[in-house]
Write a structure and sequence with these properties.
The protein contains 14 helices and 20 strands. It is α/β, with parallel strands linked by helices.
């Protein structure tokens, strides 16, 4: 039997990354750390509505929107066009575009070939630089952090505006993004966690820092889809240190926020660091193999599949993931040994799953995530779960909060009404499935974080004054 994968996580990665595509910066020496070149900007949004959990075909390159001021708009590309080639090199899915734009430079000439009215159309373009992000009520600084492996990674720092006379050190959040290899530097986008949450926190008095993974956005280094779990973890730990060292930041009030898979990294980032607290949204604390099986059952049930179909699919998923995760095989090796397990899915090839290399998952399976949380004693932890989030489970959020409490910290779990995995609000679970990540953006997550930090912050006790010495 030839199976079609139920890869909702891949669909989530795709849907949240279906944004204006930009080039990756070329690899340069670490000397360029504070002057990372700005990448070029296509300025086209690909239609995430075409993503279907049971669709075996690659995601379409049909453009749903063209952003004013981008390369696409200036070249006359329209919504409804389907991208066929960049600089005369064919593309099969939107993830093919960024590598082709790596060598493009602002103001250089190039070509984008699209299909319009069932005919190919080769359009001359002049590449436009990606705009810089602005945040009302805050100042945005584009900087970088040195990876422990010697290359520069783009950081985006947002700090609240305040008078020069206000020299207080401010609390801060390190924002850790999800699994995908897409840039978090998307200044023209709205309604996405990677952009909205850090902006709102900065406007509310927190310094926020985001860091792009190697090979994404302006960051240098190897392609993101080749790095391991340990490599990415080391980069986030370096970013935490940079945030804590900023002159406007209170180093005793630095928090970590982990979104989706970023919540898996969160306790490992905090290890040995002076962390004021960790908040996570839509994450898990079990082994990846358990997550794959539990997630498959939950999502198929949400989609109304019969119990028999669910069990049949779990047999397939269990066999494939066991070979991938426990025997440390690649998809190509698995399919060669077990042709009956062959399936196609977005962001999967001979060596990758969900757009990440198989060795990333090999290492992830060996990580004891629950133990990482357990090792963080006396820490404030907030585990959030959206009511209509069908990508993660409330049980994982409850587990994280319980571990934190058992560690003599203050762990709590909150379910946020109406929210899906993308933090957008819907009226029903069915609506969250059919309109994933395109519901109403609200500030409920930001407000919950602000309330939590206010409630749990304990200012350091003042040392008693020395007794008065009388002559």
């Amino acid at each position: 039997m030839r199976f079609v994968a139920l890869t909702s996580l891949a669909a989530v990665v795709l849907a949240l990354c279906a944004t204006p595509v930009a080039a990756q910066a070329p690899v340069q020496t670490p000397d360029a750390a504070e002057q990372l070149p700005r990448r070029v900007w296509l300025g086209a949004v690909f239609d995430s509505r075409q993503l279907k959990i049971d669709d075996p075909t690659p995601p379409s390159l049909k453009i749903s929107d063209v952003v004013a001021g981008g390369t696409a708009a200036q070249a006359g590309i329209r919504a409804g066009d389907v991208v066929l080639a960049i600089n005369d090199t064919p593309v099969n899915q939107w993830t093919d575009i960024a590598p082709l734009l790596r060598l493009a430079r602002t103001d250089q000439a190039g070509f984008v070939t699209v299909r319009r009215d069932d005919k190919p159309l080769r359009l001359a373009v002049t590449w436009v630089s990606t705009p810089l992000e602005t945040v009302p009520g805050a100042t945005v600084r584009y900087s970088s952090v040195q990876s422990p492996r010697g290359y520069a990674l783009r950081t985006i720092i947002a700090a609240p505006n305040r008078p020069a006379s206000d020299t207080r050190r401010l609390p801060a959040f390190l924002y850790v993004q999800g699994l995908g290899c897409a840039t978090i530097d998307r200044p023209s986008m709205t309604g996405l966690p990677d952009v909205e949450l850090p902006r709102e926190l900065a406007a509310e008095g927190f310094v926020t820092l985001r860091v792009d993974k190697p090979g994404t956005g302006d960051s240098l280094g190897p392609p993101c889809d080749q790095i391991t779990f340990a490599e990415e973890l080391d980069d986030y730990r370096a970013a935490f240190d940079k945030l804590a060292s900023l002159p406007e930041v209170d180093p005793s009030r630095v928090y970590i926020f982990g979104y989706s898979f970023g919540g898996v990294f969160a306790p490992f980032i905090a290890e040995g660091k002076d962390v004021a607290g960790i908040a996570v949204y839509g994450t898990h604390a079990r082994t990846w193999l358990e997550y794959e099986l539990e997630n498959t059952r939950r999502q198929m049930t949400v989609l109304g599949e019969s119990p028999a179909t669910v069990s049949e699919r779990l047999q397939h998923v269990g066999a494939f993931q066991s070979m991938l995760l426990l025997r440390k095989m690649t998809p190509a090796e698995i399919f060669a040994e077990r042709p009956d397990l062959k399936f196609e899915a977005p962001l999967m090839d001979d060596t990758h799953q969900y757009g990440r290399h198989a060795r990333f998952f090999h290492e992830l399976q060996e990580r004891n995530i629950a133990e990482a949380w357990q090792n963080l004693e006396s820490l404030n932890v907030l585990a959030l779960h959206g009511e209509y989030d069908w990508v993660s489970s409330p049980e994982d959020a409850e587990l994280i909060a319980r571990i934190a409490t058992n560690g003599k910290g203050e762990g709590e779990m909150q379910s946020l009404p109406g929210l899906d995995h993308g933090m957008t609000r819907h009226n029903s679970l069915t609506e969250s499935v059919t309109n994933f990540a395109r519901g109403e953006w609200t500030s409920i997550v930001t407000n919950t974080l602000l309330n939590w930090t206010d409630r749990t912050y304990r200012p350091p006790a003042r040392k008693p004054l020395p007794p008065e010495v009388k002559p």
